[in-house]
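Subject: two folds for Thursday's group meeting

Dear M.,

Sorry for the delay on this. The cluster queue was jammed most of the week, so I only got both jobs back this morning. I'm pasting them in the order they finished. Each block is the input sequence followed by the predicted structure tokens. Could you check whether the formatting survives your parser before we put anything on slides? The first protein is the one we discussed after the seminar.
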Amino acid sequence: MTSVLLCLALSVLSVPATAQTKSLVILTLEDSETTDEMRAGIREVLKAAGLQEGRQYKVQNANAQGSPETAAKQALELIRGKPDVILALSQPSAQAAAAHTTTMPIIFVGVTDPVEAGLVAGWGASGTNLTGVSDALTLNRRVPLIRQIVPAAKRVGVIYNATDAASVAQVREFQTLLGEAGLVMVEATATRTVDVASAARSMVGKVDLIYTLGDSTVLKAYAQLVVTANQTRTPLLASDVEQVKQGAVAAVDITGRDLGLAAGRLTLRVLRGVKPGTIPIEFMLKPPVYLNAQAAQRQGVVLSDALVKSASQVLK
């Protein structure tokens, strides 16, 4: 996937060494591993397009240390410098920037619902100085992973804490989506982390795979769940790349790097002269798939060549 993204970037813009140095401002509410990945993704695309930091472009970073008030002050101060592109790596940062300029290009990154956030009126081209990329990844976009990993699957195991209202609501939504896809959910509950492994064992022979969602009880006991999946050769799918690193076979997820690469492509278009307001808000039409080859072998999963080739990353 990376090579495709970089080729797209190269085709979008190539700036000669003699071009005027462009100025980018990157605003973050608070630095984290995810924002580091976003910045790295942006720079990766710019570098692939032939842009050298310090020559063709320069970057000013601002970290608000978690304070929306500081974010607003930093945005105002940096906007006074009239940067060519403002990249906002959080919703508060984007809102702060948008409050201080209606003309300078703003690209928001990782704002789940920019309409609800009041940044744009709709998901199409905004007609304003804003565009960006959303990190929205709904449950219905996770269901296809099941057939990709276990093509003949019919019964999907889900473990959750029945006392967690948010988790229950997510499970019920997932159950409906599975039904629409011709799949049946088999439930097991765990109110304590020590119950997760036994809940998984109760499903052996009754399910074709176990799919973990965002239940905090389950996530805290993921190491034990992986051990059980390996011992019983029960395929384990996840909703976060971190669980793939821990031993799940696969997950559909959008990482900071994925968002950074997308933001980098948007940045190139704006630097080329495309008006942000003419660029529709971007979201991942085909969310990246992350695989763990060793986990697949241990859990009896044969990964197709096509899936491996299309995966964003395959952990060995």
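Second protein, same layout:
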Amino acid sequence: MKRNIDQLAIFGGTPLFDEPLHVGSPNLPPRDQLYSRIDRILDNRWLTNNGEMVQEFERRICELLGVRHCIATVNGTAGIEIAIRAAGLSGEIIVPSFTFVATAHAVEWLGLEAVFCDIDPATHNLDPSRVEELITDRTAAIMGVHVWGRPCDLDALAEIAARRRLHLLYDAAHAFGCSSEGGRHLGNFGDAEVFSFHATKFVNCFEGGAVVTNDDDYAERMRLARNFGFCGKDNVIALGINAKLSEVCAAMGLCSMDMMEDVIAANERNYADYRELLGGVPGIRFIDYDPGIRNNFQYAVAEVDADAFGLTRDELVTLLDAERIIARRYFYPGCHQLAPYADRRDWSLPHTEAVANCVVSLPNGLQTGADDVARVAGLISFLQSHADAVTNRLAELAR
């Protein structure tokens, strides 16, 4: 561990890690298991168009979540798009600004308007009271995001949507394998929920996604939208795009699902270690996961109080990056401050901006071991205890 600030990498010292330690390094299955499935794909000569791997992947997801329908897609963004399109939505969709920009982009790409709503600073999810304030005669739907896999206020959003006759969708990109307070898996709420199986997710398809729903008619419309509107070999009955998941991506997803409990266990151990090792460090507060609710623990997320810690979140991220610890500022800035949206209206989202300016996500997953966590935590503790000296040296560098 660093013994004095001259040994910090940003000031010319040797980085703490020889290779970058990433937040989202892929969790990889045993290669022989993946290669075995790929051999079957090649033997079948069925590479896409709803082959046996995609069918098995969709079936496994339905069984795990207890949902009626799963529509696997090329990625999560496409999943959101076909969910919106198949619902026949137009006008405005209320979304949080504290989310990955794909949530808003999918809305706008289809010609609708994303209306950004503030979050509850305690949960980092949509604030239902603010949702109610934003509803107009142009509002078509509410789209919640289960940030960090922690469920939105499901009852409150469902009540608003029903009373105001709005569609209710969920971006559940973080939330595969997570549950609600009643123990029911996320995926069973609203009209539909959309998962991401991007390479950085704890279950991944290299690149992929899925929409799940318990509405039979809606599911059929989404299947049509996913595959050019084809019903049968040469009968096109609806507008559609090519949002199909390939067989090799589904094979990766199946192998990834086989190991998901091991990944969750590793994630939870790392999260617990971070909390224990950094629990006494002023200005570092890890988000809480309700022990009564199942979570995948993919995100080891802390809020940095700059006054108490002595360094800003951004300074901490810069210092960690120099040590080859690739922490992330999720989600910075809020979507409403990004170029496509910033000048559209005078957004008032104080909680979103405050959280976006203090949150940091630390490395987790199978590639992050107990020793790695200890070294990261030790460095963060060292930085806090030498914050004044580090701040002065950073100021010198900036001159």
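Two things I noticed about the second structure. Residues 5-27+260-327+363-398 form a domain with the Aspartate Aminotransferase, domain 1 fold (CATH 3.90.1150.10). DSSP finds 14 helices and twelve strands in the chain.

Cheers,
T.
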